[in-house]
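Convert to structure. Protein one:
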Amino acid sequence: MKKILVFALCLILCTAMFGCEVDINMSVDIDEPSVPQENSEQSVEASLPEQTEGLTADDVVVFFGDSIAAGYGLADEEKERYSSLIAEEYGCAVYNYAVSGDDGADLLELLAEGNCEKLKDATVIVLSIGANNVLKAADALIPYFESLQNGTASETLDVTDVMNEVAQGIDRFKTELPQIIASLRRVNPDARIVFQTVYNPYRDFTEFKVEQNGFQLSFAAVSASSVISLNDVIEQGAEENGYTVCEIYTPFKEYEGNLINALPDGSNVDPHPNKEGHKYLAELVAKAVK
């Protein structure tokens, strides 16, 4: 049980709550839908349409972000990720520049390189970024995981230091977020920007317990506190930076069903959205476009 607990804890923080590439053997049955792939860079450029309410076939939608937007873990990332589902549903042109593992600094570097050709044509920009800013927190877990493997681990894992690392990562994101928006606006001052919040991938992991500052907490609660702190940064920056927040946390929390690969019995701790999760993300993002 301890091995499952630490492995799960490593994944929630090491994967930066959905970004880091993790080699997990997942057995997920995924059908092959008839979904058109997103346009390649060689596609005919679409003209910039006037702004309208909601997505239309005239829109050019550009995605930036981490492994959620990239579709990590799906049987066919390019066909089954939510950006492609939006392209199918609304007939709009979609270009996806998301990179698994990217954090705020990585996205700034990507934008500085100037190779995202379709950004200038976008009428809508969708962002799924920030979760990987807590990646450094995983470093504090490595020694414990190694001691667990050789049988010298203590009975209780204190995650106080880990959560301090998480807080530092979120503080970095506070600085990076307005820089990201400014970088996008320099290339495209008119597109609508939709910034996704982050869901708690371990909402049902209530039986796993850890210690923080002397208090016993459920793993679900520790996970939620990190995600909520990150989401606060995204929500609080919306008005000043001129973007729309696409609320993901609450809909995923209240959804009656499983939208991610992680299972509360510990048999699967992969935090990425499953096929159903990407369908739901497509709905939520489309509704947020105004």
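Protein two, convert as well:
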Amino acid sequence: MSKYTSAAVAALMLSSSTYAFAQVADRSYYGGATVSAPDAGAFFVRNRYTAANAHSYPGIDPVPVRLGAFEARPVLLVGAISTSNVFLSDTNETSDTLIAIQPSISTASTWSRHRIGIDASVRHEEYLDLASQSATEYGVRGFGQVDVSSNFAIAGSLTHQNQRENRLGIGSQAGAERVEFDRTGAEANALYATDRLRLRGRIGITELDYSDVPGVPFSQDLRDQEAISASASAQYAVTRDWAVVGEITSVDRDYTDPASNRDISGMTYRAGVNFELPVNLRGQVTGQYQDFDPEDPALGNIESTGLDASVQWFPTELTTANIFASQSISDAGNTTDANVEVTRYGAGLDHELLRTLVLTSRVSFENRQFNPSNREDDLTLFSVGANWKLNPNVQVRGGYTFATQDSTVNPFDDHRVTIALRFFP
């Protein structure tokens, strides 16, 4: 019996599990500062439509566990992933099947004012043939919010994660082991909201510490960094249907390797609209201008314009279409390039076939332009899957994902079939 057959049943667990671990817990209560007073943002309520994958049905969906003054969402994920190209290499394609086990929990207080909570997650991946690729990751985050008034709140979080770099990531090296790294961060944000106005500010600091791995011909110390980001945004509701949006974000990335000259800082400016229209549309679309200045005088400024968008269309109550687009400047993860300009865009479709069964499909495109070399990668991802809710305590997810990259340095194709059980105690 082939590994694809043994992994069986189609679903979209690759993307869902990656997203879950990125959030530290499967479903986090933490979403930054919020206010809920009737006079604080009534024009920003976006609840005309419910996405196909967000419908909630009593007796079918999981129920949070009450722990005195706290509420918890514990989840246990057990899954199998069969991949045709473990190392994402064009010259050394190696297939294998791995077993993933991931317990996670998110808990928060249920006080009428203020809030504290914690997220935690552990994920172990055991490869059946390539035992050296097996690894365990973990993450924990503590968060809290202080309600200064009915219109003003301050929130923040502390995070630590030990992870392995995703092979689809920009810094991943073809044919090599996944790079282990520690991510430690803290952030604080505040929200002031009235009926028609929302003002938000955020500041965060993140430290990344990479470990060397066999097969990579350079020290990962050159990637160790401290990044400080700050942003301020304002939204003014012209009507209940739409609001104008403005945002400024600054990023200062400082590399700790004294021999490195990779430091970079920059600004991103966005302006556009946030909306929920009677024509079954909801989302936010902004124009974007980026201006980044590398410290190395041999590198020129990076200036670009683009689109930052996330839009949902609800053709029926059971079907939701999604489109998205974004641009960013990221670390290149190699010794040749200092940074890389990344453009992402794509679309997805969710359909509730039954109350207990939601079908999904996604396609995304990512263009990576490396600086200062002329390297350019084009990554395409396509996935289809399903989520079957057996009862409030058990869900089955499965799917198929195809990834292909067109590159002069690292081209590859990869097929993945996944099945996973999620248990909600």
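The chain has a mean pLDDT of 90. The longest helix spans residues 13-22.
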